[in-house]
């Protein structure tokens, strides 16, 4: 019979979260013990010995009130400060993080690797390398939760969310969906396998008969007829996509926006939302409902690969700038 | 009870309110950029204050009534304000540590 | 104690119970005390309905595989448990029952300001409950009590609209109760009953009423939007058409976080009454305990974002909500410290209500402190949406609120019914509740940090032992709830007569007969002293009663 | 605690309208007024929720929201605002008449108030009909076409949804308050009110004005956005 009391710590941030957790637990235990002890002590010491006792009136003490308002709050500020440190330190993935794409769908996790592997409810990652997971949802809100890594992020439909972690210990860990998503919510679980660098290379070599994600995207690009208008080297009816990803593009209404994952996503699903300067609205059909989130990610990776062949994309220069952790809408704000 | 305002006061307030309605209608046709909405809301706020203070006679009411009348709008601002704490900064991403 | 055993068939003094007979005299009553009794009956029914769902959940979780019922059924169980318990038990529990009965009495009023609206609010509550139960009978709802979009608005195939209408309607019952209390406390106080002399239970209910009035309409409109979206597929919360599901969460938690203060604040008010009465001492730091109720009510509106740290809300908004969440812990801490200090040099007796108060202080301390884990950004990422949240919430709501409710029921039962409950059984039940509760929910903290997500029908096998402990605790807890139900019913006929003031308490409600007459007091009382003037009372009296 | 408020308390020592649980008419009047204000607090938050959601989406999609102004008729909006302001005036005068005990004037002003209230609903009905003909009704069977600005089609749908939700909700309040006024009118006809008892007129008046205030904000927010924007 297993009775685990504490989860394994298998990522770079796990121990920092644990230390804070221990600190919080310690304060909780001390405070609870203190209150219990005082209550018990008073209850016994001042128990009613006769019905005619007359306890002295005590109205209060301003000093005490201030002390027990301010001191706990100062302690709580340390929680706040420490917690915010961890939260912010882990907000943006480092620029050299390895990309993995995960799509939540009632009720499974579909994982894609840039190298072309695809898995369901299994995630294979190499040890000691930062991994950035781009999260998308096909339907409702899911939440990508790996307890051993102490990371969790909701996967909200209609946008890309990102999370990242650096696994530190080879092994197999739970992957859960933590946001209630319907009938088989509790079946939306899988395993994260952390492998040594060598094992990972071998594993990568073992699969992926359909080519890399970019190649799959390129095939889709042809199949969906995108190539008719978006030609690579000469002007078609649509913009040339080479070198677009990660650059700032000029829109019809005069604004300039960053061409990141969210922008490409919106341009495919709702082409009229942001039309580039010099092009007409209503030329490109919408692909909403015609391609899956997975295919969308393949197309994005393909467009991204077009940038890498040319100039180094902006996203690689400043890690934070191109993170697609935005609603598809925020880009429209001035 | 408190004093009863005269018919004249009521009619004056009505006249101001009607004029303000036309003002807001025409100002909306003038290009002021982001100020259009500000002006429109300021006029609406002014009209609201007139209705509350005079038609609803809060001017002569007890401080308690004033407090409750004000609390509603304060809470609504609280609701909107805190929505916007999220929506305004939604796209911002911190770089590394906070401090 | 001057408890005189009388022949129960002896002629009784006229009181609100024997003034009139027949079902009409109850269903058309405008007496706040009778309406409170109607509420007690209805929320007790809802509590046990919610409890049945809770037991089914715990039985299902005995084994890691989902083998008792299928996933859909399980999802409906926890949804109905949540909806029934939150909207139809916890929110109306203390305000609509004990508050309804005692707020007017404690301030020396003949009734609430709007007796007909009070009755109306009960009918609205029943209508809301009818819709919620209709949703159960028709086939259930599976969205969780939080109704998150787009699952609730687009993907669920269950009776979401029926349940949402039920919650929507029940919201008006809550609003009307709050409105009634606010006006009553402002306008109906007896001569001499200044704000500084109000019993703390009244302060707590007043603060609660503010939240009810200010928060409830927002959740009503939110659920209306969900219903609209579900009926017409417009796109308000549908990301495919440009809607933002996160906006739903903002709007939902704008009410639903303050709503937990609707649930706990009146409980805190009860504890202030119990601690003073059974220590025979005035409260320590009256202005701070009273003010902290208002503080909680107001700051409570500024913290809802801590439910949304991992949803992709702006990080800076997370920072803001995290900081303010710690701030709201301060007034709660003030209350706990002041209750403890009140006992200092008191004359403490161990009657059942005081045992519940001890239980409340302990469990609420744990519940409150574990709430700090959830306000801490770095740790919340790991524990949110796990059993840690479930445990924290139940420590505050069941360990805190339900214990306070039971404590209050025992404390005021002699006044409500005119009879005493059996002390031995009551102590036994209190111990069962305390032990069963801890066994049920403490393991869930561990499960949560281990990573068991909430709302899971089947779970990883290594979590089984802790889940079995939890289920075992739940059966003890269930027994602890059934015993009081039995002896309260028993005592109505066979309990010894209580006398007017069995606890020798100071509140105005104890200075009239038990059960009270229809208009509460023979003549309007005049208040000349602070609340909880046990010192002067002790000197004046020889024997209580 | 209830400090005797001059006139009311003096005239109402034995008023038949005093309910048993109040000490005097002043206390009863104050309670009713405060109760109405607390109820209005609730109403503010009711509309506040809608305003909040509306504002968020307007901030997200400023251009799409501006494009909808092409299909709004600000003349109707302004006319309705004016109509409501007149009804507010007559309502205020009705309350004044009731305070002074001028029963005939009270009835006259109540009738006028109701006529203007009805006029608002009639104009609103014409407007809804126009939207229906325009295919700008995204609810109820999807009577919806936005080919004029295809780039904003989806987001404009949200705007129109809010438009119908907010104005519909406001219209519902109009109907409720017309019902309320009818009751008050019947009571006035029966001679219920006097210069010492006019609480129902007073608090219904507060409600009437509140519903007008909501419209004062709905008008610029729904009709006057982006009227100057040149749309591509």
Question: What do these coordinates show?
Answer:
The complex is a heterotetramer of chains A (334), B (99), C (545) and D (232). Chain A contains eight helices and twelve strands. Mean pLDDT of chain A is 86; it is low at 310-334. In chain A, helix 6 (261-269) packs across helix 7. Helix content of chain A is 34%, strand content 19%. Chain A is an alpha+beta fold and 334 residues long. The termini of chain A are far apart. Chain B has 99 residues and is mostly helical. Chain B folds into two domains: 1-60; 62-91. Chain B is flat and about 60 Å long. Chain B starts with 6 loop residues before the first helix and ends in a 10-residue tail after the last helix. Chain C has a single domain, classed as Cytochrome C Oxidase, Chain A, CATH 1.20.210. Chain C is built from 16 helices and no strands. The model of chain C is unreliable at 1-10 (pLDDT under 50). Chain D has a single domain (23-223), classed as Cytochrome c oxidase, subunit III, four-helix bundle (Four Helix Bundle (Hemerythrin (Met), subunit A)), CATH 1.20.120. In chain D, 72% of the residues lie in helices and 2% in strands. Chain D has helices spanning 6-11, 25-60, 62-67, 74-100, 103-133, 153-189, 199-223; strands spanning 136-137, 143-144. In chain D, strand 1 (136-137) and strand 2 form a beta hairpin. Mean pLDDT of chain D is 86; it is low at 1-12. At the A-C interface, helix 1, helix 2, strand 7 and strand 9 of A face helix 3, helix 5, helix 8, helix 9 and helix 10 of C.
